[in-house]
């Protein structure tokens, strides 16, 4: 039974970007840390897969933007190489068959309205916005409907914002939560762009490389893989953390997993009512990301960049996801919300057929015959249960929202869903881990 | 290690009204059943407490209506006595200080509109309503706002329907989910009334008596208390159910706990994406029910029945909860949604003071000085985590709603949240348990 009650200053639960960042900040502060990860790998919602020929597929998060200062600094520190998202050719915006490179004026004006509304929402405390209650009681869908703009324009904005950013449908989140998400990233333009925006750069070797380097740089013994944490016992005197393998004692705990997963740990004593109520109200996104692998980037010859955004159809977005020098070409497609749910009702074959058919509509018949077709459903993953990230349900922003990152005694909370800058991104995850570590350091080293 | 792998035809998880009903239906069909309950008692969200002098307080569900045929039949079968909810005097409807026995015409007309809309929603499959998508993408708050009715009228309806029935705020649920809940109970009038409605009768000895009788009538050994189930392993060949105490093998499992609790069990293999996504989207209600106990029912002398409904203030509803022949008098108050969250932020003393102050405004100064003041927060209870019941979040009715009660292999799902008649009530729980049992019987005895 050696090791059953190892003592550490801090146990960190979850070795995604939040947990890794917390562990680094805590060890840097001279504290002893045990970082426990359920999976046999680090990186959380970043996962890179290599096909036999070396073609790199980022199955989860993959982009880095220039204003994401924390993750950029980490990338630099570890000498991780990044490259510009390729754009060989024209982007397609498909407005129900009206295909154009630019946006409809109605869409631009809707984005401008959102940008203006964002300025009224403080990222640190969206519940304090003057219109917080009014915006929390209305879905983003209702707000769009009320603008009176043409259906195709509101649908496009819904799919880009509630889908492409929040990974759900405009029916699922409030105006307040939507604006909070936008403002946490610096606004609409900062989020949507490739050049200068959140999708500007990709990682050579895949986003998981960053997490792997962060893990490798932790002191020996800090990280333990393959140890799902099931239970946290806590009191004023410290905590006892039970994984499937061991039990650990610590003065403080940092829970650095998505809210849905955090809600499924057992706590003794049970979490306070408002904390539990908050964790009940952050369902994870339903994004489906699939990859079609071709011998050649046939779309480039036809003048397309592979980047598309559609107001209709099962696929909201596509992107040329071919890394430079890759042996084959990759077209990656995204579905969100209602379409992502519908695609999950299909069998794998029907899903593949639907996706390829839509890719062919967008880029031509060669899309119908990929050499490989790879999908990975984060909603099926026991230790994630949805992607990109979780969002507060309607009405919860003004009631439970303020509780999400509040410590419960010696238990602290990280994860990109608790971030106030770049919420939902790697950068927000890093920020949240450091913020939780800072809380712990201040508590243990007053 | 005797008993570690006991085999039964069916393991039922949770001995609330759903689990008890499933266990009865299954044993009646000749199947061997193990019913596992986490707590040291049965009854789930029904819990009766007796003060030292014998005064009965129903801390959870307490009412039975005449059209709830299943629970009435059970009450009769076990010789449980029920009595009419007392009404000695006038009810108060408080419209921001305009206190009246009748309703504002705007309120009546809003109820009529809802009644008409209910007729367009099939309780078995609300997602098939013609307006399903439109009603799922809009909160009930937005619908009320769009009626253009006076604020005091829409607030009253919001508090009565989204609060008094769904135990939340109108910002939290869609029009579709709200209508489904109403229609599952036969419509607005069926739900709101005392006389002839869902609150017509109470149970002598408390609602828990019914569950106790149901448990006592199960064959010896079927029920085991104090055994929280943590994990369900399942395959085509059957299941292995692990509690904190034992492990059981069974051909089929019925999970009869609220969705939030069901989502926190571990499943191997992990639940399929859509099932898990559905369970992520049924947060439990936030009702707070508190009891002020007085030597005398002073409100009756002033001509009040103790029944009140308010468009404003922290308390949405009050009721004279004194059982006939009780040694003392009980005034029970309810808060929901935003007010219930706010009251939870107060300390116990401040909460008590706020509640009593409002009771005094309604019924006079004697309300300020109760002999006892009892509260019980279901959101704090590890094995319930909210009351009255859970509701699908906005947008989930048309996407995930149809999955809630779909079996996953040999695992079946009960609980009042899965009911299509009297969803959220004892009667719905009974119906759901019988429906799940029926699925099992048909599978095992084809």
Automatic annotation (TrEMBL), chains A, B:
Entry cofactors: FAD
SUPFAM superfamilies in alphabetical order: FAD-linked reductases, C-terminal domain, FAD/NAD(P)-binding domain
Residue intervals of the Amine oxidase domain: 17-440
Secretion signal, residue range per the UniProt entry: none
Keyword Cell membrane part of the UniProt annotation: no
Keyword Ligase: no
InterPro entries: Amino_oxidase, FAD/NAD-bd_sf, Flavin_amine_oxidase, Flavin_MAO
Keywords of this entry: Oxidoreductase
Family membership: Belongs to the flavin monoamine oxidase family.
PANTHER family for this protein: AMINE OXIDASE, AMINE OXIDASE [FLAVIN-CONTAINING] B
Official protein name in the record: FAD-dependent oxidoreductase
Organism: Nocardiopsis coralli
């Amino acid at each position: 039974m050696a090791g059953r009650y190892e003592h550490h200053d801090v146990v960190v639960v979850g070795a995604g970007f939040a947990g890794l960042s917390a562990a680094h900040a805590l060890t840097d502060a001279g504290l002893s840390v045990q970082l426990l990860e359920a999976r046999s790998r680090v990186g959380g919602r970043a996962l890179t897969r290599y096909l036999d020929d070396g073609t790199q597929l980022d199955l989860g998060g993959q982009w880095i933007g220039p204003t994401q200062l924390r993750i950029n600094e980490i990338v630099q520190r570890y000498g991780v190489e990044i490259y510009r998202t390729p754009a060989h050719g024209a982007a397609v915006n498909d407005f129900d068959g009206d295909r154009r490179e630019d946006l409809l004026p109605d869409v631009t004006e809707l984005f401008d309205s959102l940008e203006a509304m964002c300025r009224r929402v403080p990222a640190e405390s969206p519940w304090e916005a003057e219109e917080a209650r009014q915006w929390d009681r209305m879905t983003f869908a209702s707000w769009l409907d009320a603008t009176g703009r043409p259906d195709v324009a509101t649908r496009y904005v819904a799919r880009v914002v509630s889908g492409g950013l929040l990974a759900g449908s405009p029916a699922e989140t409030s105006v307040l939560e939507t604006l909070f998400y936008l403002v946490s990233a610096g606004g609409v333009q900062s989020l949507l762009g490739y050049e200068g925006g959140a999708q500007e750069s990709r990682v050579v070797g895949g986003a998981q490389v960053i997490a792997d380097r962060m893990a490798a740089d932790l002191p020996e013994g800090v990280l333990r893989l393959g140890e799902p944490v099931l239970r946290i016992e806590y009191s004023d005197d410290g905590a006892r953390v039970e994984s499937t393998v061991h039990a650990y004692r610590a003065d403080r705990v940092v829970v650095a997993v998505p809210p849905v997963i955090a809600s499924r740990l057992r706590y003794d004593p049970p979490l306070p009512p408002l904390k539990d109520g908050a964790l009940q109200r952050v369902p994870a996104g339903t994004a489906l990301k699939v990859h079609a692998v071709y011998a050649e980037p046939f779309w480039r010859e036809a003048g397309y960049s592979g980047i598309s955004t559609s107001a209709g159809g099962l696929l909201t977005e596509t992107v040329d996801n071919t890394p430079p020098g890759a042996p084959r070409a990759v077209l990656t497609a995204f579905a969100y919300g209602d379409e992502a749910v519908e695609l999950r009702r299909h069998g794998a074959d029907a899903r593949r057929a639907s996706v390829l058919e839509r890719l062919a509509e967008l880029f031509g018949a060669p899309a119908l015959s990929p050499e490989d077709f790879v999908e990975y459903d984060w909603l099926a993953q026991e230790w994630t249960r949805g992607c990109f990230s979780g969002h507060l349900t309607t009405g919860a922003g003004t009631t439970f929202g303020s509780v999400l990152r509040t410590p419960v005694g010696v238990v602290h909370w990280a994860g990109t869903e608790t971030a106030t800058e770049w919420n939902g991104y790697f950068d927000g995850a890093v920020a949240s881990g450091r913020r939780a570590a800072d809380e712990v350091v201040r508590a243990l080293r007053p």
